[in-house]
Amino acid sequence: MQKIYKPISRRHFVAGALGSGAAVAAPAILTGAQAAGELKMATFYALSGPGSLFGPTQTAVTKLAVDEINAGGGIGGRKVTVIPSDGGAPPAEAAKAAIRLMLRDKVDIVVGSHDSAVREAIVAALKGRVPYVYTPLYEGGECNPNVFVTADTPQQQVQPSITWLAKTLGAKSYYLIGNDYVWPRKTNEQAKKYIAAAGGKVVGEEYVPLGAPNKFEDAVTRIKAKKPDLVVITLVGGDNINFNRTFAGFGLDKSIKRISYLLEEQTLAGIGDKSSNGLYSAMSYFENEKSEANAKFKAAYRKAAGAKAPPLAMIGVDTYGGVNCAKALIEKAGGTDAAKLMAAASNLNYRTPTGTGVMTNRHVVKDMYLAECKGTSFDIVETFKAVAHGQTCS
């Protein structure tokens, strides 16, 4: 009899990781009195909702980056004070918060790590009047004025990894499964082009509601009937966990490879070592990346955050580059004038956990890593150097 794992609800997964489903408060050191001559940095991180799994890491990594910046004299000689807001709120609420931060608190810059619906709401609320640095992986195409994106794009995640998997594994047939919202659909639009370019064929494509109760037996049965060489997964959080556990429960992990484009250390822990055979991920950060820069970053993080430091993963670590990008932008521009910031973004260099990010067209050229799951750890099998982001923002 086939073993089918009991689904994990999004609420249960998040609560289990954090101890409760409540919002995660930012450390007191990030708020505090508004000092004269300070530089006010607003943050929108997932402090509640499905993404709150990543909130503690986002907050702790930002604290490290800000502490380092302030120890070095601040940004342009101004000490940075962080004003946290909830990027896990519904888009309309996030937009209202952005307007308050702009008009009442008069923040100098915003850094955000959250989903694209919240990004679009914040961009519409700010109207380019306050610079906004967006950090998590996304579907591409964000070119609004005074918005700067340090995120991985589909051209960086999907194109090199599909090319490598097609060549190395001989993958010819592909099945696409994702959540039904903008990031999976837009990412798969690009994926289908890269699959065709690699000589492959898409034999199935489907989308499921985000966070809805779903045991995935029907989807896995359809995949079993199609017998693809590779399943391309753009599921998020608990849905990603439930699908991969059900997939392995059907025994398909023994004959069909998978790649998931939102799979980092915390989600892999939820999938578990019994369900990760033949599973890959592609991102610009994995904790076990071997560079000297990452070793120093991890040591500094653990020293600062202590024995109970939240786990490091791509969603969370992305905020370190975002904060440092904000510093580099403001200092190169000599302030926060929008036109000067956008000019400064051309060939901007800034600090990341794995080295130096280079910004062009308000996106970032970066090294990308393809990793194979080994139990609940990642084994980096290929590094793609200086991968272009594919965006043409002026």
How is this structure best described in words?
Helices cover 39% and strands 22% of the residues. The strands form 2 sheets. Strands 6, 7, 8, 9, 10, 11, 12, 13 and 14 form a 9-stranded mixed beta sheet that branches. The protein is globular and about 65 Å long. The protein folds into 2 domains: 33-152 and 288-360, Rossmann fold, CATH 3.40.50; 155-283, Rossmann fold (3-Layer(aba) Sandwich), CATH 3.40.50.2300. The chain has helices at 10-18, 55-71, 91-103, 116-126, 154-169, 182-197, 217-226, 237-249, 265-271, 292-305, 314-333, 338-344; strands at 39-45, 80-86, 109-112, 132-134, 147-149, 173-179, 201-208, 230-234, 257-260, 279-283, 348-352, 355-360, 363-374, 377-387. The longest helix has 20 residues, at 314-333. The protein is of the alpha/beta class and 394 residues long. Helix 5 packs across helix 6 (182-197).
- Uncertain spans: 1-36
Going by helix content, strand content and strand pairing, the class is alpha/beta
Mean pLDDT: 90
Order of helices and strands: HEHEHEHEEHEHEHEHEHEHHHEEEE
Give the total of beta strands: 14
Radius of gyration equals 20 Å
Question: How much strand?
Answer: 15-25%
